[in-house]
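Revision sheet: structure tokens.
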Amino acid sequence: MHKGAKTAIVGSVFAVMVGGAGYGAFNILSALDSDGGGTTGASGPVSVKKSGPPDASEVADATAAFFAAWEKGQAAAAAALTNNAEKAEPLLTAYGGAAHITGVRITPGKASGATVPFGVAATVSYEGKSKPLVYKSSLTVVRGLTSGKALVDWRPSLVHPGLKDMDDTLVTGESAAPPIEAVDRDGKVLTKEKYPSLGPVLDQLRATYGEKAGGTAGIELTIRHATPDTADTPLLTLAEGKAGRLPTTISATAQTAAEKAVRRFDNASVVAVRPSTGEVLAVANHRDDGFNAAFLGERAPGSTMKIVSAATLIDSGLTTANGPAPCPAEAVWQSQTFHNIADLPADDDATLAQSFAHSCNTAFVKFADEVGVDSLTREAQQRFGVGLDWKTGIPSFDGSVPAAGGPDTAANLIGQGKVQMNPLTMASVTATATTGAFRQPVIVPRSLDGRTLAQAEGLPDKTVTQLRSMMNRTATSGTAAGVMSGLSGRIGAKTGSAETDGSATSDSWFTGYRDDVAAAAMVQDGGHGIDAAGPIVATVLRAGG
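Predicted:
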């Protein structure tokens, strides 16, 4: 077949496709075997390897062929039309196999360059029960690195937008855990529809406590995630199970405020806890990937870490809130130079309270040669419970403050270096600072399963008094004053911004308390603490718990 004839035929097929017809009636796979064209030599066609972005004709051809194979359930053929057949074939096989999805009809939209949006209409059938499945996705066509062919850029999310990890898959059958009816501390029902960012949390609670809650399993199409400790994500229910009632510590009032607050920023997360009990009052994330960064994130916390660092200096007898903590313009530790935020004037007579309130980095760095390599590590773990094995009720990353030598000894003191936290751990740090007692955060009552909670010795009374005073000063006249203004009651806060590798903009961190509510937020690439994370925390604290 000559190149022009082939292009005309495939192009006409794609035109029909755009008009809304499916691909089941067309067999165009063989038309693409010659890699989109070539030249003719004395002994027949000679393949010419193409380069550069695929043109419109190639995008149409590759898309049409992939959709046709997918509709017919030809997993191996469809996978061969992608740039990662090894990963594509198992998922495409599961689509019509373990997921029991049949009658697939794909309707593409108008291509935008090499990207083609499309809709899928199919049927999920299992043991005599069937339901329609309808959703939208998109794919992108790229040039094969070795073959030069126009290929579908493989991403699991093109098969279904809920598939994120390269090894995620689809399964239909009896649900892995019975459904739950999660309720807040006052008995109000918590649903994904009303509290969207609670989705991953509710899925995990179901996986952990579905059987304990007394429900019975239903039949569902689910996403089985490859990531360890990640619960299945239900997509479609073919037969309802019986939901068991599951009490949580969440406050619907605080959760509503948290949901609203994080929606103002991309990649934002917040957690609120009750310091007197350790109960989690709210957890919210606004992220495209659905990751529960509020509980599982691992990021440098920046200057919010100075709460732990200040406690270390006080408990080590190196200074006090009203003791000296000079704030020079720069400080050098083991050949690494540290600076302060812009426009912060040097103050050789500053106290720890002043340097804390104005978030002076150099004041803390200057203590690096007086603290032991493991001083911050021991303070974080033994006093604040950071890095212990928390049993919140769902998986969580509980912070890491390694005993790092060299430049990291100084960097750790200002929340950089090797320190890793998330909003859950920083909310807990703030709660411990305000009460003196470490109460391990929980999202379901311990009485539900009798699990053993992490224990730490907490802080001396004199340290708590000084931390409260410094955090209150920060909230009323320091770097957090603008955000905390107007909040009544007993308040305190600490701002933070953390530099991350490969990003020109720092992460925004903020943690604070108001009476018996402590909250912490992080916004990736959000800038200074008061720019993004601060308003989130203030909104949650204003709502109370």
